[in-house]
DNA sequence: AACTTATTCAACCGCATAATG
DNA sequence: ACATTATGCGGTTGAATAAGT
């Protein structure tokens, strides 16, 4: 996989992103902003198509993207919103700060609405993740995914040291994640005090978000 | 230890819609 | 009004790895 050759011409790269590509993409966007993805890919010198760049940025490299296990509160929100909207992953993701549609979709498929793949279908019935005690596979997944997600964190480590990026505006964060949520202004204002000056959000911010879910009934959200 | 099966999740694909000329 | 291009979304796949035998 990865690069495919086509009549000797180097094809547009596919497959997993390398550290170098991540760095190129991040530093390019930090200087020129996101959008115009096809053009961005060309201008940045990335041998990728625009869609691939967009996906990589939105799901993994963008500041504020939250990694790690889905919390019980998030699980609850996902279930509630899915019951209301169905597979509207991006819409659901807007109500889960830092989570992406892709991540929620994967979570739903693998943890909530488990549909066995592969040969043996006679596996255990849909185990309900409501138990929330993360199953053994959950714990395993953290280490399983480490190889790839670790690449991203390494990128950030290097990037943080090498660049002096302006801090992303909280407003844009709120716009990205809370747009349709009731009380967005209050959330943004209250969360602002936790936002550190460096790139990214600190624990206080996420604690705030977690607490927010406890106090904000799902039914209050648009 | 070697092999098989199950699981996870990053990334791709195709389609729909929006934006632009 | 139409054609073309860009963007966004949801479904699906496949490599990597864990778990089981």
Automatic annotation (TrEMBL):
GO terms for molecular function: DNA-binding transcription factor activity; sequence-specific DNA binding. Residues 9-61, 62-116 form the HTH myb-type domain. It is found in: Nucleus. One of its GO terms (cellular component) is nucleus. SMART domains: SANT. InterPro entries: EOBI/EOBII-like_plant, Homeodomain-like_sf, Myb_dom, SANT/Myb. Pfam families: Myb_DNA-binding (PF00249). Residues 9-61, 62-112 form the Myb-like domain. Keywords: DNA-binding, Nucleus, Repeat, Transcription, Transcription regulation. This is Uncharacterized protein. It comes from Oryza punctata.
